[in-house]
Amino acid sequence: MIDADPSRVWALVADPERLAVWAGVVTVGYMGTELPKPGQRVFVRSRHGFLRGRQRRVEIEAWRAGSAVSCAVATRSVPIKFDLKIEPEVGPERITTRVRLLHHSEVPAWCGAVAYWWISTRLRRMLDRLERAVAE
Q: Is the pLDDT of residue 16 over 60?
């Protein structure tokens, strides 16, 4: 939960210029000026961790302005799927935002526990950065 209006959260996550602030990636090359749509491809480069500097192609699979985006990150084998959803939570005194990040990838059984820990840690860091950026 983020103590902020959902429109502020969406404005941050949907802005390609601000991906580095919360997702830890920067866009590479021309992004275009149109709204994202299914099938659009962009390239990103990681800014954190041991993948720092590595470029990846990301294809938008679904775009629901104001509430969700789904994309596939190209890898050598099966693409990694990434979903982000936001939902308003209206309380008696204020509105907050529920943010849900999902990461779907295939990993060998022998490294499942380590992969789960690593992915969970990365997603938690994204959420923490997102919360701090929206509060600023």
A: yes
